[in-house]
Each structure stands twice: as C-alpha cells, then as structure tokens.
C-alpha cells in the first residue's frame, strides 16, 4: 500500500539518508544542476549519487502527489489520472504479449507500482531491478512510438496548474499551495527533516519545465519501444 498521508510524506523525505543529513544532501543535489554541469567524467562518476539523492529526496513526494507508479500516461476525457496510469500499464503488458507464467524483468522499477499491476494483469512473475535502495525497500524487437502524440488529453495535464481537478487535487495550484505550507510547517516543527521544503521547491520547478516542454512538444516522457533478442536457433539469430 502506498504511503499517501502528510505524516508519511514528512517522514519519508530523505529516504535512506540520515534525517540530519537531508539538508546537506539537498545542497549536493542542487549543485549537480548548476547551469554548467561540470566535466563529463565528473558527471559520469557522480551519476549514481545524483540519481540516488534525487530518488531518496523525492520518492515520498511522488507517492503523496502521484501514487505508486512513477510514470505518465496518455489520457482520455473523463479518465482519472489513476485510471489512465493503470490502463497504460495494461497496454504495455498487452504490447509485450505477456503470457501467464512468463518471467519478466522491469529495469528501473521504482517502488514497483507498474510491476505489481502488470504481474497481476498478465499473471506473470515480474522481477524489479533498481539502483535506489530506498525505492527497493519501498517496493519489494523494434517498434517505436510516442504514445503521447495520440493522447486526447495531454500527458502533462496533471501537472498543469491552470486546470482544476478534484480527483488529483494535490497537483492543482491550491493543492500545491497547501502542500507547500504543510511541508513548511512540518519542517518547522521538526517532523519533516530540514531541506524538505527545498525538495518540494525543486520538484515544483521540474513540474513547470515538464509542462512547458510538453506544451512546446519538445519533450515526451512516453517514448515507448519494444525490443526482442533474436530467437536462438532461428535464422533471425544468424
Ligand atoms: C522515473 S522512475 C520510474 C520508475 C518505475 N518504472 C515507474 O514507472 O514507477 C525511474 C527509475 O529508474 C531507476 N534507475 C535510474 N537509473 C538506474 C540504473 N542505472 N539502474 C537501475 N535503475 C535505475 C530509478 O531509481 C527510478 O526508480
């Protein structure tokens, strides 16, 4: 079950990071994003640390605002965010032609939202692989298409502050305003670690950039491709 309450959000910020070190982790993480990102070799060397810090800091916000599955979905009129996410996971299972009993590897599985839904939907056994320890603890060929292109509702709609939504209230302008002040208060009284408000702030910035990239059609988070290794012993393999 996903942790969706204010207390879970507050106590989850920082993930595996010691609560007293959350603030310095936020500092380090933000420094990875100065306008010039540093030498390529340094960036490569710091990649794992950057990803880990990001997911340690942001996972409880994801769960609070989005749910157990950390991806976007194309969306139909009248469909809630949750319904569209589940439908998209079913769609992926169908595209992969998953059959009961098959073994599947989910690389970069987050906290396992899609993994669990796809395993249930297709009666397969899905193993998750992830480089972020906190998310693991929270969760225990060729065909290409940009699924977002045919979406009746834009994939970035849940993050678009100009819309009203009761089903995804936490993502609306008012919902975010409440979350901002709630996180501030939780940080002030010491329930949330120092730095929590800054995490919320950089996630807000990321959301704004996603909406802007989506509107300009220069970014999609839903580029899907299906790949299969050639079957051994067939002409495809030679
Ligand atoms: C945007 S999240 C998506 C998670 C999940 N697929 C979902 O939709 O809920 C990307 C995930 O990839 C994981 N990841 C990033 N780089 C990785 C790597 N080199 N090896 C394994 N996992 C990685 C992150 O920890 C994170 O869980």
TrEMBL record:
UniProt keyword annotation of DNA damage present: no
Domain SAM-dependent methyltransferase Erg6/SMT-type: 54-140, 141-230
Domain of life the protein comes from: Eukaryota
Assigned GO CC terms: endoplasmic reticulum
Alphabetical list of CDD domains matching this protein: AdoMet_MTases
SUPFAM superfamilies reported in the protein's UniProt record: S-adenosyl-L-methionine-dependent methyltransferases
Name of one Pfam family that matches: Sterol_MT_C
GO aspect biological process, one term: sterol biosynthetic process
Keywords: Lipid biosynthesis, Lipid metabolism, Methyltransferase, S-adenosyl-L-methionine, Steroid biosynthesis, Steroid metabolism, Sterol biosynthesis, Sterol metabolism, Transferase
GO MF annotations, alphabetized: sterol 24-C-methyltransferase activity
Family label: Belongs to the class I-like SAM-binding methyltransferase superfamily. Erg6/SMT family.
Name of the protein in question: SAM-dependent methyltransferase Erg6/SMT-type domain-containing protein
């Amino acid at each position: 079950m996903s942790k969706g309450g204010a207390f879970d959000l507050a106590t989850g910020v920082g993930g595996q990071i010691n609560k007293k070190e959350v603030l310095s982790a936020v500092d380090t993480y933000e420094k990875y994003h100065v306008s010039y990102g540093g030498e390529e070799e340094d960036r490569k060397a710091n990649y794992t640390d950057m990803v880990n810090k990001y997911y340690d800091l942001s996972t409880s916000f994801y769960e609070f605002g989005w749910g157990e599955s950390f991806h976007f979905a194309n969306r139909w009129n009248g469909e809630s965010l949750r319904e569209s996410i589940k439908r998209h996971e079913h769609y992926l299972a169908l595209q992969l032609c998953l059959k009961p009993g098959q073994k599947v590897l989910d690389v970069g599985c987050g906290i396992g939202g899609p993994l669990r839904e796809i395993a249930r939907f297709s009666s397969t056994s899905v193993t998750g692989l992830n480089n972020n320890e906190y998310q693991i603890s929270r969760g225990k060929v060729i065909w290409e298409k940009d699924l977002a292109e045919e979406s009746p509702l834009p994939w970035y709609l849940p993050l678009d502050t100009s819309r009203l939504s009761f089903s995804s209230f936490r993502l609306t302008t008012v919902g975010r305003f409440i979350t901002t002040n709630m996180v501030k208060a939780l940080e002030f009284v010491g329930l949330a670690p120092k730095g929590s408000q800054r995490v919320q702030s950089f996630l807000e910035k990321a959301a704004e950039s996603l909406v802007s990239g989506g509107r300009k059609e220069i970014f999609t988070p839903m580029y899907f491709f299906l790949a299969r290794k050639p079957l051994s012993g067939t002409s495809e393999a030679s």
